[in-house]
Design brief:
This protein is mainly alpha-helical and about 170 residues long. Helix 1 packs antiparallel against helix 2, helix 2 packs across helix 3 and helix 4 packs across helix 7. The longest helix is centred in the middle third of the chain and has 21 residues. It starts with 11 loop residues before the first helix and ends in a 6-residue tail after the last helix.
Length: about 170
């Protein structure tokens, strides 16, 4: 069966609502690059539009911002062509888990040395809840997010970006 992608396009009323959301996000001090990315993506992605609406309505704003950050990051990483993913044998999964834990501890130490989560989130230009979620979740952050963190902190990318980062 072939999958078809349904294209979402905002209506005139949704465009006005999105403008209100953008103004409100700006009023709350959310980084402008992030707001612009959400605005652009919400015009063509129903899920992003709905999350932005939920944020606007005050529904668990930190969670909405973190989810929006993930969707923005995903959209920036869309491959130009299908990519092959490495295969990890089942008996090596514990090792991968240990590596993730060590990596997250190293990243958290780096963030703390540069002023903490709020200060680093501001330097990176991402909402504080997104960085907090990145540091506290069990999953690996996206490579593009780690590049942004390294650049904002002025550290070599090799210090925080490894060959097995998603």
């Amino acid at each position: 069966m072939k999958w078809q992608t349904l294209m979402f396009r905002t209506t005139a009323a949704q465009k006005i609502k999105l403008a209100e959301i953008v103004v409100e996000m700006n009023r709350h001090g959310i980084p402008r690059d992030f707001i612009a990315a959400v605005d652009e993506l919400a015009r063509v992605d129903a899920g992003v539009f709905e999350l932005a609406e939920m944020w606007f309505e005050g529904e668990d704003r930190d969670e909405c911002l973190a989810d929006l950050q993930e969707l923005v990051d995903e959209s920036e990483e869309l491959p130009k062509a299908p990519a092959a993913k490495p295969y990890i044998p089942f008996d090596e999964l514990d090792d991968v888990g240990d590596r993730v834990v060590r990596f997250k501890k190293h990243l958290r130490d780096l963030v703390d040395r540069h002023g903490g989560v709020s200060a680093v989130a501001k330097k990176v230009g991402m909402p504080q809840p997104s960085l907090s979620r990145l540091l506290n979740s069990a999953s690996m952050p996206r490579r593009t997010t780690l590049y942004r963190i390294a650049n904002a902190l002025g550290v070599p990318e090799a210090e925080i970006v490894t060959d097995w980062v998603a």
